[in-house]
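Design request, tokens follow.
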């Protein structure tokens, strides 16, 4: 818990100080866990260069997940869409969406967010089976365009 003025404690505004508090807390807890049980801990970041070395050294392995290659984007989006009901026209539009994404460096998270936002639009529009329509997909993509 970060101290706050209402409790009579010092308010912390310096981001590096907050980062240090979090790092120290994590390192202490990690040591406690190591002594008790085998626990797998996975950390992720888009800014590995900003992670404290002491913290980075606590992980046994580093796995790099690169951005999708152009030829992988369509398969990834289709895989994400498997769990959604999508209209025929939205499915056909997917090919244009894929081509537009080429060489734009969309992360997997950004692409997944486009689909999730399209689904939220379909729910908000109270569509039968919350089916994602072409308009949902287009609007969601336009809002997240690079």
């Amino acid at each position: 818990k970060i101290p706050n003025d209402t409790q009579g404690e010092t308010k912390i505004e310096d981001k590096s100080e907050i980062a240090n508090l979090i790092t120290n807390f994590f390192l202490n807890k990690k040591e406690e866990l190591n002594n008790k049980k085998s626990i797998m801990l996975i950390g992720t970041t888009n800014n590995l260069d900003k992670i404290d070395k002491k913290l980075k050294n606590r992980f046994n392995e580093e796995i790099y997940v690169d951005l999708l290659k152009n030829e992988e984007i369509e398969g990834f989006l289709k895989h994400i869409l498997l769990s959604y009901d999508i209209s025929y026209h939205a499915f056909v539009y997917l090919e244009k969406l894929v081509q537009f994404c080429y060489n734009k460096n969309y992360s997997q998270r950004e692409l997944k967010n486009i689909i999730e936002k399209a689904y939220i639009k379909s729910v908000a529009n109270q569509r039968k089976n919350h089916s994602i329509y072409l308009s949902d997909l287009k609007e969601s993509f336009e809002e997240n365009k690079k």
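Comment from the thread starter after seeing the answer: thanks! Residues 5-56 form one domain.
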